[in-house]
Amino acid sequence: MNESFGTRLRARLDEYGPLCVGIDPSPALLHAWGLDDSPAGLERFSRTVVDTVSDVAAVVKPQSAFFERWGSRGIAVLERTIADLREAGTLVLLDVKRGDIDSTMAAYAEAYLDRGSPLAVDAVTLSPYLGFGSLEGAITSAVANDAGVFVLARTSNPEAAALQRLVAGQVLAGAAAANAGHTPFGSVGVVMGATLPELEDSLLDLNGPILAPGLGAQGATPADVARLFGPVRHAVVPSVSRAVLEDPELLRSRVLSFRDECAAHLDARIATQK
Ligand SMILES: O=C(O)c1cc(=O)[nH]c(=O)n1[C@@H]1O[C@H](COP(=O)(O)O)[C@@H](O)[C@H]1O
Q1: Does the C-beta of 25 come closer than 6 Å to ligand 1?
Q2: Which entry of 10, 44, 61, 97 is annotated as an active-site residue?
Q3: How would you write the pLDDT of the chain (274 residues) with one tens digit per residue?
Q4: Which of 57, 187, 231, 255 is most exposed, with the fewest beta carbons within 10 Å of its own?
Q5: Domain containing residue 189: CATH number
Q6: Contact at 8 Å (CB) between 256 and 222?
Q7: Residue 270 lies in a domain
Q8: Torsions phi, psi of 118, nearest 5?
Q9: How far, in Å, from the CA of 261 to the mean position of ligand 1?
Q10: Which residues constitute the domain of residue 74?
């Protein structure tokens, strides 16, 4: 690898369309699929998602929490899932929402961003609540490994608004500073829920990718995403989990229809039309 995460993400979005598909093997979804709530059930679920969507989704986002529930056996399944995704060629965004101080944050960065780590991925979600500056080392490490980060700015859940509107400006400013001068855009993304009523104007200066969860189960539609993100729509990666994962038989068709609808509303071309 010698292209930045921003460059690789831009290419993948242009080729496959603007969609991130979650792997969220919750007990409820394992049950709906007729699988045991066990490491074997997790593995079957994850492998089915990888096999069914990796050739049509620009980004796939495993949710670490559902693997961590099973301790070392769950982490072993997560490692195999990451390896399968990388082999399939899709970009892997691990949703871990990590954030801590200096050497502790460095250890998280080593775990997820260092190319030699068994859990190395293309990008991770980070939490900025120990200060945006506490993430600097992880951002440096991401860039050194051609990886990326998505820092929580305004999340999709309704409880977040009161706290996050006080600090989102600092997150956006920190990410914009890290991305300045990078083309096609930088590798420091932010998370902005697709369910939000409105956005900070400073998002216009981000020059980086925007992960927008909240499609489907949390109520947002592709039209909402286009309305909300307006002038930065080319940088948005809408993310969907439960609405496509409910039924393995419908998984591929639902991913294709979310992907095509997002592309149509966001004025994005899909070079590889499957
Ligand atoms: O970082 C995330 O992916 C994330 C941020 C956010 O603001 N809201 C949000 O729901 N998520 C994640 O997106 C997934 C839920 O997606 P749905 O099942 O489509 O609602 C879960 O893994 C959440 O942790």
Answers
A1: no
A2: 97
A3: 589 999 999 999 999 999 999 999 999 999 999 999 999 999 999 999 999 999 999 999 999 999 999 999 999 999 999 999 999 999 999 999 999 999 999 999 999 999 999 999 999 999 999 999 999 999 999 999 999 999 999 999 999 999 999 999 999 999 999 999 999 999 999 999 999 999 989 999 999 999 999 999 999 999 999 999 999 999 999 999 999 999 999 999 999 999 999 999 999 988 876 6
A4: 231
A5: 3.20.20.70
A6: no
A7: no
A8: -65, -20
A9: 19
A10: 5-166+184-196+206-265
179 part of a folded domain: no
Residue 140 Cβ < 6 Å to ligand 1: no
Distance from the alpha carbon of residue 14 to the mean position of ligand 1, in angstroms: 23
Q: How many structural domains compose the chain?
A: 1
How far apart (Å, rounded) are the C-alpha atoms in residues 24 and 72? 18
Question: Is ligand 1 within 6 A of the CB of residue 43?
Answer: no
Within a domain: 201: no
48 falls within a domain: yes
Which residue, chain included where needed, has tokens 């990078």?
182
Strand locations in the chain (E): 20-23, 59-62, 91-98, 123-126, 148-154, 188-192, 210-213, 236-240
Ligand 1 mean position to 268 CA, how many Å? 23
- Cβ of 240 closer than 6 Å to ligand 1, yes or no, is yes
ipTM score here?
0.99
97 included as an active-site residue:
yes
